[in-house]
Amino acid sequence: MRVYLETFGCQMNELDSELVHSQLSSLGYEFVDRPDEAQIVLYNTCSVREQAEQKAYSRIGIVGQRKKAGERLILGVIGCMAERDGLDMMRRHPQVDLLCGPAELDRLPQLIDNARTAMAASTETQAADRAVGLAPRSARVALAGNRTRRTATLAAAEDNLEALDLSRSFRLSGEHARRRSAYVRITRGCNKFCTYCVVPNTRGAEVHRPPDHIVEECRRLADAGALEITLLGQTVNHYRYTHGTAVSVGGSELAQVGPGLSAFRSSAQSAAGPTSGTRVTTFADLLARIHDEIPQLPRLRFVTSYPRDFGTDILTVMRDCPRICRYLHAPAQSGSDRILKLMNRGYSTGEYLEFVAAALEYLPDAGIAGDIIVGFPTETDEDFEATVALVRRVPFKNNFIFKYSPRPGTAAIERFEDDVPDAVKRARNNALLAVQAEVSAAVHATWVDRTVPVLFDDVREIVAPNQATRGSAQPRVELGWERPHQTGPSSSTPSTPVIQAVGRTPQDLIVAVDCGSREDAESVMGSIRAVRIKAAMPLLLRGQFG
Ligand code: 5AD
Ligand code: SF4
Predict the structure, then answer these.
(1) Backbone φ, ψ for residue 126 (5° rounding)
(2) pTM for the full predicted model
């Protein structure tokens, strides 16, 4: 059976898709690059903003038309939309054959099998089901895996998801061969309940993986040729594993519900606090272990940091371990204390600034990135100005800026009216992007005339000023053509196509190097090279091999 798998949303979804790919490949499924070549179409979806959901729904609509035209296809929706919309999605979109939430992915092969069996069943049975208002049999059977929310009854001892993470393929093929970077999950779910965010509902409670499993996975990836590993968690610095509390029959440690769970869900498995004699692996300990036990790994990074729980123990390990990238993605979300309170972020702007000051004291060269939401309910011009002031105060290399999107199931949609008009959200978004471009340009300018190690992963052809770039891989950021703020090395006129090799520094700064030919650019892909920075622009640095 041929499978087409498309991923929407965050890095956590990218990793989930990779695991699904490994899991189904090992069962003999073949993956194809186009939906029209597939017999099974899977969309790994994101619910964080409405826009991402709309995009997925339009894809689901297209598959629906194909099915109406008589094609025998299995359509599966996996990830956060499946979890959030559940049976409702199947009622409204009967072309969807299976749903699988992000906390159920180990059950996907079974769901596909069920959907295949049901598709083979007589069409009369399905018509009869429809007549009594039920979803088609294929849908009902395939949904079984999703119906019990694992997170509601989570027994770490039964956590098959751990097996899914552990069963990943360690061959660097396709995109990996070029990027030589890999994600490793350390924590699933989130316990924070920021009022705007669906993640605690769709991905469930925070669960920490055993440190031995994480270190082993990193080691196998490094041995397979990964040059960069990014540890993933919604609040990655919140990682904490108490040893000796969850052990399997075979003696190996199991995934463990994170601290703080008892605050919002009474459960027999709520986290045991450190009692006398218990040993705890903190996030700082985990970073140090991976760094020290895998010396062949040149780069270790992590996302996403929660600014409140970022202790100096982590900063100390980062300072003392040279192969841990000096990069912090720590979303501020807003610069207004009033809005931060309504968001339930748990820190003030002052505390955020203290975190940044500590980070820069320990790691003066750190690249700091963040996320900001504009137009949160009741946000006034004054609140927005406070956000602008924060962005001007912190040397952010970049910020991902989002317009507030009310999400079903969140506290914010229940409590607050979405009262900031879309035109105002758009204007604030654009204004903040302009401020961020100035801040980014200033941060980038400090790197001119320095030599930095760059891990190259993309080749682009710059066609003309302000026009789209063409790369052989899907661009992770739209670079466009930027005029250097300082005189750059390139003397090419804007209308001459330029081939660039593009990569990233440990600080996650994007660096582009002009190459004589596509072959020259290809020859540095998947390697770390020293680059002398010659020019700085808002989105990237330009340099020469040096
Ligand atoms: N509306 C807009 N942005 C959101 N984010 C999360 N939920 C929403 C929402 N409802 C943003 C936050 C988060 C990032 C992943 O997405 O900034 O850090
Ligand atoms: Fe969502 Fe907040 Fe958890 Fe991040 S920390 S995933 S924004 S609830």
Answers:
(1) -65, -40
(2) 0.87
